[in-house]
Amino acid sequence: MNELNLNTLIALLDTEDITSLKAKLKNLFGGEVLKKQNGKIKIITNGDLHFVNPDYLLGEINQILETRTIERSRYYLKRLIKSLTEIKTSNLNDLNLNRWKEYDDIITDSLWIVDKRDKSGAHKGDYWGNFIPQIPNQFLRRYTKKGEWVLDPFAGSGTTLIECKRLERNCIGIELNDEVVRLAKKNIAKEKTKSNSVVRVVKGNSAEIDVKAELGKENIKSVQFILMHPPYWDIIKFSKKKNDLSNAKSVAEFLKMFGAVLDNTVKFLEKGRYLAVVIGDKYSDGEWVPLGFYVMEEVKNRGLKLKSTIVKNFDTTKGKMNQKELWRYRALAGGFYIFKHEYIFLFQKPAK
Ligand SMILES: C[S@@+](CC[C@H](N)C(=O)[O-])C[C@H]1O[C@@H](n2cnc3c(N)ncnc32)[C@H](O)[C@@H]1O
C-alpha cells in the first residue's frame, strides 16, 4: 500500500515556481500516483493515519498539474490539504463534504437506472415485492447519521433493516404478516456484518400499532428517517387480511388506508428530517392509474414538503420475462406502454 505524508504536501506550498511544484508533485510515490492504483492510499498526518481513495487523490493532483499559475496551483493544493485534514458534515448525514468527490456511488440525479440488484450477504431478493437494497442504502447514507433511528412501516423481508445493520443505523420495521415477519427475522440474522445497531421487526398494522410504545422500548421519542414501500395497491396480494393495503377494494380505500399509516407514523418523524415513499402505478380496466401521484398528494396534504420525484427503472418480473414478446405485441396492438419505472417521492418535514 502506498503512503503519503501530509507534511510532504504542506512543504510543497513553499515551492516558488510552478515548474518545480509540478515536478515535485509528479515525484510523489516516485511518480507512481499518476498511474491508476489499486487499494487505498495511507495518509499520515502527525502520527494519525487515515485512508484515501487513490482515484480521488489522482484527480486532485491532476487538477493541480493542469494549472498555469503558481497561485492557482497553491489554491488547489491548499484545498487538497484541507480535504485530507478537516471534516465537514451537514446535520443530515456523515458525508464528509470536503471529500465529496469520493462519493461517486451516491446518486444525485432524479433518474435512477440500477442494472443489478445487490445480492450480497443476506440480500437474497426472493421475497416477491421486495425492493432493491440500493434504495435504502442510498437514502440511509444521505439522510441519516450512524446511530440514528429509521422506521419502515412496510418492512416485508427486511431489506431496510439489513441495510441499517450494515450501515450502523437503528431501525424498527413493522410488518402485517406473521410469516413475513419470520422471514425478515431470519434474513436479518443471516447478515453477518458486525454492527452495534438495533434492528427489530414488529408484527402489526402500521395504521394502528402503538408506535410511541415501540419507540419507548428503545428509549426514543422520534425517528430521523422513514422509508415506506407500501403495496402498489392490489398488483401483488400480500395476504388475505382486511387491513393489508393490497386488499383495498378501490383506489379511494387504498389511499385512505395509506393515509392512516401516514397519520400513525409521520408524527414521530423528527422535524426537518426526511420521508421517502417508493411506489409504482398500475393498469386497471384499460386505464393507467397514477397511484404514485395520488400517494404523493396524500403526503403533501399532511404538510410535508416535496423535495424530489425520482424515477427508477425496474426489471421485468420473472413471470413477465418469459412473455416479453407477448407483452410487446399487446402493447403495440393495444396502444399502451409496458411499465418499466416506479417512483420514489422524497419529502421533508418542516423544521417548525
Ligand atoms: C411492497 S412490500 C415491502 C417489501 C420490502 N420493502 C422488502 O424489501 O422486502 C409491502 C409489505 O407491506 C405489508 N403490509 C401491507 N399492509 C400492511 C399494513 N397495514 N401494515 C403493515 N404492513 C403491511 C405487506 O405484507 C408487504 O410485506
Task: Describe this protein's structure.
The chain is α/β, with parallel strands linked by helices and 352 residues long. It is built from 12 helices and 13 strands. It has helices at 6-12, 18-26, 54-65, 70-85, 134-143, 159-167, 178-190, 211-216, 251-265, 291-300, 318-322, 324-334; strands spanning 3-5, 41-45, 48-52, 111-112, 149-152, 170-175, 199-203, 223-228, 269-279, 282-284, 287-289, 305-313, 341-348. The strands form 3 sheets. The chain has an 8-stranded mixed β-sheet, sandwiched between helices. Strands 1-2-3 form a 3-stranded mixed β-sheet. The chain has a two-stranded antiparallel ribbon with strand order 10-11. Strand 8 (223-228), helix 9 (251-265) and strand 9 form a beta-alpha-beta unit. It is elongated. The site of S-adenosylmethionine (SAM) has 25 residues, from strand 6.
How far apart the termini lie comes to 49 Å
Helix content: 25-40%
Overall mean confidence score, pLDDT: 91
Largest sheet: 8 strands, mixed
Radius of gyration: 25 Å
| SSE ordering | EHHEEHHEHEHEHEHEHEEEHEHHE
**Which stretches of 5+ consecutive residues score pLDDT under 50?**
none
Number of helices: 12
State the main characteristics.
binds S-adenosylmethionine, 20% strand, 352 residues, alpha/beta, 12 helices, 8-stranded mixed beta sheet, single chain
